[in-house]
# Entry
Amino acid sequence: MLGSYAAYPTFIVFLAVVVTMVLTMVLMPGFIRFLRRSAIGQQVRDDGPETHLVKQGTPTMGGLVMLVAVIACTLLVGVPTPEMFLLLGATVAAGLLGLVDDASKVMHERSLGLTPSAKLLGQFAIATIFVLVAVNVIGIKPTVTIPFVYTFDLGILETVLPVGEGISIPWLYVLFVNILMVGMCNAVNLTDGLDGLAAGTVMVVMIAMAGIAFRSGVLEPAVFSAALAGACVGFLWFNSYPADIFMGDTGSLALGMAFGGLAVLTKTEVLSLIIGGLFVAEALSVMIQVFYFKKTHKRIFLMAPLHHHFEKKGWSETKVVVRFWIVSGMLAAVGFALYFATTVAG
# Structure
């Protein structure tokens, strides 16, 4: 941490926002120029809204600059704790997975990159390593709490491997965290379909998570959350409508994995479903649409994910984005309020 400023954690958290915002805004223009010279651009879905066809060829993989800014900021501003390295490791690993996916799309000039099974395999591997390190190294308890209701012990079904001092595998908790982290990873990815939508909503969510981490006394996750929020702010300068660059799967998969990891380290696994409720709704809209269409050959939504449904209803892209930001802010506020109430009551 920055020497004499270590005694002022609030300042450190706000500094993380500013540093990543500035780094992202400084590095992004050069990266955009490089992508344009290299003809590296987004491949748009043929079955998407017709208004999106003009986005074909827009530079993508902007999430790479966001990751560089977050890594630089956390190493400069934060303390090299196991929590920080675990969060960085999972986020960067998911970002690299997304980078391979983005590169595959560009090379083959199609809107689909890696196969769904390949992406899921990589995501589950990252989530599994994350939860095992969280439990065995950091000491995260394999419990899940529904605020004001009950705390479930998911460590009742456990295997201890005779390696070193023993590696605990709480099977039920590992399964739960895998579903949470991989689910959030793909939910944020699905949300990244309009200019500024994913960056704006993740920014709001990360501000709430920084507040929760700070309130719970774990400074490094608070700094990390703040750094991600700042990167989203800086990225929005270039991603607002009409976008000069997209974050690609490099950014969306990394941000989703980071959100899931933060939920585990702050023990807000259930509350994260409220704080990130917009992402959950986007993912559910796709699942419901696919399931209903297979059963009836009819559609519930005009188009999935949910943001495209409202576009089809005649809302402008900017109206959908701003209103989704508002909804995300409301859900994040409710989630934070519930967390605050539980800490006061506790």
Remarks:
- DSSP finds twelve helices and four strands in the chain.
- The mean pLDDT is 91.
- Residues 3-345 form one domain.
